[in-house]
Write a structure and sequence with these properties.
This protein is 43% helix and 14% strand. It is globular and about 60 Å long. The mean pLDDT is 97. Helix 2 (24-34) crosses helix 7 (121-145) and helix 5 (93-100) runs antiparallel to helix 6 (103-117). The longest helix has 25 residues, at 121-145. By secondary structure, it is of the alpha+beta class.
Length: 204
Amino acid sequence: MDLNKVFEERRSVNFFNPQKQIEEETLKNIINLAVLAPSAFNLQPWELIAVQSEEAKNKLFPLTGNQPKIKEAPVTLIVVGDLEGYKPENTAWNDLEIMLNNKQALENYQKNAYSLYGTTKERSIKFAESNAGLLAMSIMYAAKYYGVDSHAMSGIDFDGINKAFSLGESKTVVMLIALGYFDESRKLYPRRSRKSYYDIVTKV
């Protein structure tokens, strides 16, 4: 599927066919393509929890306002941002360390990351959520490339999901993404209009 078709045919699918599963290899391919998304300092401050079992779906279901797609979709991803992903403990720094081959230069990068993202709670949240958001959109386009439909969800109990899945204080739930195949017996609303270049761009 070419890039135009990926963008044009991706829809937010509300109705999933519960009888049609996603092959494990397909899910791996989607994620391995999606992680090419950019992130600050290439720190990749994100994690994914793939909710697939009946037990996990039942745990998640009431924390989404009982949205049926949680039980119908074969996989729902909990997209998690790491509020402390800028810290030196993040193993993603290792590549930069090898590339620079200079301990002082690496420490300078790490100090810069702290000054940008670690000085306030608000900055840490912005860091985690903006980067994980880039991954989330990348996942949905990668899914469409592999013929898998998706639906992003933010009308959820973020704190409740954090507690239910034991994520801890250093992690923030950014959104959910239901993945599966559209139930062809149902109908989607027609695609609504989008604002264009002239609606959203201000030249200065």
